[in-house]
Amino acid sequence: MELDDWMSRFGPSVLHLAYSRLKDRDEAEDVFQDVFVRAHLARESLRDEEKAKAWLLAVTLNICRDRGRLWLRRREHLVQGEVTDLADRSSDTANTVVKQAANRAVWRAVLSLPPVGRDAVILHYFEDLPISDIATLLGCSQQVVKTRLYRARQRLRDMLAEESGHVDG
What we know:
This protein is mainly alpha-helical. It has helices spanning 3-22, 25-41, 49-66, 93-111, 115-126, 131-138, 142-164. The chain is built from seven helices and no strands.
């Protein structure tokens, strides 16, 4: 697979993950470039297309960690338009607006999770990676990944219920 093909196929995932870690579009784009420079340099050893996405995402996580900004970044609200709209297309404008607002709320909640839970959620639910691959990427057991996902889902449910004003208790 050529580098251009990798960038087209996996680039959005790399950029999405980098942005979710750094919360800065310019920094995420820098990481994107670094990842694909490394992919170009390692192209001879990366012949297996099935493992390419996992390798690229692992490199993305490592570069984000190396930058040392993960723990120092402010948890600001998202600027509208910086994150790809996750809403489904709909002919009904009002319905579309409601879906977009709900998706922005979910995305803000995901970004406010602690890094370990946020990584697990993004890799599993947004990047569709199986738990075994996530465990390998994050350097932990599958049970740890399952626990992180469970706790993250609980936290997301609580945050979204609080935001919508439907707090049980």
